[in-house]
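Figure-free illustration: sequence to structure, shown twice.
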Amino acid sequence: MKQHKEFQYVYNKGKNAHSSSVVLFYLQANGVKRVGFTATKKVGNAVIRNRSKRRFRALFSEYSPLLNDGTYIFVAKVALQETSYLSLKNDFKKVLAKAGALRNV
């Protein structure tokens, strides 16, 4: 996802779930998984924002087989830069479960 209007549509129509370091906006859809990662300037400079998005991409690829089809937008919070990998992984799983995005296997 790259266009502003795509992000706005998911923000307005989708479910959201928050944790201490990540916010997830999820809109259920059939047949496709689309994903977007954002980090505002509040998070830090460009290096920190890009690192945050890389961490999200790594976690998303790890959890991707367990996820329902739909559109996912992950938003970094300021606390993300001090969060360890294990804490971030727990937060990531928690927001996915809150939004109902995990597949029931």
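We now fold a second protein in the same way, so the two outputs can be compared directly.
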Amino acid sequence: MRKASHSFIEWSKNALQIDFQGRVIFFAPGAIFSVSKELIHKKPISFYKYLLSFLEDHIDPEEGHYFERTWAYIFCDMNTKIGIIQDS
């Protein structure tokens, strides 16, 4: 794995404009989630190209692991209620 030049907290602030310091982070273990076409289209393609730039220089960049923890925040507005499905 290629080590990131920034910590997860710093990367989130810079790349996503989200400050996770002291906050609970909701994430989908194993990257099992779905996203509607409408949510994907709410952000400009330049945003997604910017995020891809963190992944282009190595087969296993640490930022890829940051993505695993931020999918919900990448695709949803921070003010959007994130649905959580729990096994019964």
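Summary for the second example: The mean pLDDT is 86.
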